[in-house]
Amino acid sequence: MGKNEEAIALMKEGKIEEAFQTLNDAIKENPDDPVPFINFGNLLAHMHENEKALNFYQKAVELDPYAGSAYYGAGNVYYNSEKYSEALTMYQQAHRTGLDDASLHYMMGLSYYQSGRLPHALASFKRALELDDTDTEARFYYGLCLARLEQTNEAQAALMRVVKENPNHADAYYNLGVIATFENSYEEALDFFHRAVEIQPDHILAVHAKKQVEERMKQEDE
C-alpha cells in the first residue's frame, strides 16, 4: 500500500494526525505528485480548514492543470461556504479536465439550483441520474426543479419514485403535498403533509401547510 492509500485508510479510521503525517511524508518523498496535495486538501476540508485546503488544491493544479479531483475538492469547499458561483466555476473546470461522474453533476446541479438557474440545474441532475440511476437525492432535486419549472406531472412522478426508494424522505412528501394542493387535491395533499410531519415532526413547512389545508377543507365543509 502506498502512502496515499495508507493516508486515505487512516482518514476513514478517524486517525487524523497519522493521516496528516503520512501525507506529509508522501509530499516530501515526491513533491511533484499532485495526489498527496489533493488528499491533504480533502483532509483539511474535512477539518473545516477551508483556506488551507484551497491552498493545497491550488498547489495540486499547479503541478497538474488536469487534476480534476483538485478542482472538485475546491468546488466542495466553496459550496459548503455558500459561495455557489465560485463552486460552479471549480466544478466546471473539473468537468473540462475529463471528470464526468454522477457526484460532479449532482454538485453542479446543486450549485445551479442554489443560484436560481433552474434549467441548468435540471440538466445537471438529469445527467447525474443517467450516470447513477440509484441516486435518490439527485432524483429529489430533479423533481424539485421540475416542480419549480411548473412541469408538475413529471415532478410528481419523480418525487413518487423518491418516496418509493426512501419512504422516510420528509421533504419529498412535503413537495408532493404542495403539488397536490395546487391541483386542489386536498385530501391527497393532507396525506402527504401528514406523512412528512410523521417522519419529521419539526418540519415547519409541512406543519404549516397541513394546518392550512385542514382549515381550507373545514371551510369547504361548512
TrEMBL record:
It comes from the Bacteria. SMART domains: TPR (SM00028). Signal peptide: none annotated. InterPro entries: TPR-like_helical_dom_sf, TPR_rpt, Ycf3. TPR repeats lie at residues 34-67, 68-101, 102-135, 170-203. Keywords: Repeat, TPR repeat. Pfam families: TPR_1 (PF00515), TPR_11 (PF13414), TPR_6 (PF13174), TPR_8 (PF13181). PANTHER family: TETRATRICOPEPTIDE REPEAT PROTEIN 6, UDP-N-ACETYLGLUCOSAMINE--PEPTIDE N-ACETYLGLUCOSAMINYLTRANSFERASE SPINDLY-RELATED. This is Tetratricopeptide repeat protein. It comes from Aliibacillus thermotolerans.
